[in-house]
Amino acid sequence: MAAPTARSGPVAAFVRFVLCGGGVTLLASGVLLLIGHRVPFALASAVVTVASTVLATELHGRFTFGRGGAGWSDHAASGLTVALSYAFTTGALLAFDGLHPGGGALLRQGVYLGASGLAGIARFLLLRHVVFATRGAPRVPERPRRRAATMGSAGRHTAVPYTSAPRLLQGS
């Protein structure tokens, strides 16, 4: 495996992940502001969430992880990571509300942001190492190839098979 470069290293990929995801989130919030009052808000939010997840998955496939466009299975797996993130942040808020009823808006916002940050890191790791992991050749060493050597003696050529290992040729 090649050593990570500045372009392919985990820190650079994480920066691209934050920029792509943050940009799509800002775009989605703007679209939600534009259409949220024209249609029921729950419907607008669901449509914007699905569309922004599809867009972010494409951007992550192409730019964040450099694997090219995302296929259907990539979109499904990415959608699953979004659902898991939603469940985690919602669970954190429900747990906070259960442990500290009336804990205050600022503290509640802190719990939400902390849970969102942890969910984002987990989502990055899942996308990098599972969804958009490079599927290269197996790391099993290649078997030595058999070649035929031509040995000549008094004008006669005879094919003798040998492997590519150099130690077999040393006595010739």
UniProtKB/TrEMBL annotation:
Q: Where are the transmembrane segments?
A: 12-35, 41-59, 80-99, 111-131
**Name of the protein:** Putative flippase GtrA (Transmembrane translocase of bactoprenol-linked glucose)
Q: Any idea which UniProt keywords this protein has?
A: Membrane, Transmembrane, Transmembrane helix
> Which species is listed as the source?
Actinacidiphila paucisporea
Q: Which domain of life is it from?
A: Bacteria
